[in-house]
Design brief:
Layout: E1 2-5, H1 10-21, E2 27-30, H2 41-44, E3 54-57, E4 60-63, H3 65-75, H4 86-103, H5 109-118, H6 123-146, H7 162-176, H8 185-195, H9 198-203
Parallel strand pairs: 1-2
Antiparallel strand pairs: 1-3, 3-4
Helix pairs in contact: 1-3, 1-7, 4-6, 4-7, 7-8
Amino acid sequence: MKLYNTYISSASYRVRIALNLKGLEYEFVSVNPFKGDNLKPEYLAVNPQGVVPTLVDGRRTLTQSLAIIEYLEETRPDPPLLPADPLERARVRALALVPACEMHPINTPRVRKHLANDLGLDQETSIAWGGHWNGLGFGTLEALLNDSPHTGTFCHGDRPTLADLCLVPQLFVARVVQTDVSSYPTLLRIEEACLALPEFRAAMPENQPDSPSS
């Protein structure tokens, strides 16, 4: 199993956590968008979209982090990342989609590059723009998690689910783009519980082979 990814990518971070929780070994292949690795012909031959992550499992090549995680869930079901009950599964998916689809796309390097280079946004305006959308997403999650009896140690119950795999990387990225997350106590409590687990810690950006801090 081979994972094309990079330390700074929150989508890659999600998949690394999933692989770790399921006890799956993989080869780390660095594709750093800040170095232009994602647009090199050799990587575009693997993933024509030129984004990370990409998982190669035998002869199968999979793209898009949520699709990869669902594939892992269906082919390596233990431990499960989704509840058995259909309504609970829907709740977990909904919680996961807020950071994965409403927040993450706004903070990708190619979007920020477009804002700066093509639309002329200065750094201060870019930070405020990203903070606005991060605030809407985190505020939604805080309300959903704080008011639900299904919330436990983690986003859903007392073991990590897909929702936690999406929340923790988004909090990481929010800090990178200078979003203040101090007003979301439920999210921070869940993040702390997640990062107490070795599988989450091993997936952290600073612990990856291509991280500048490695």
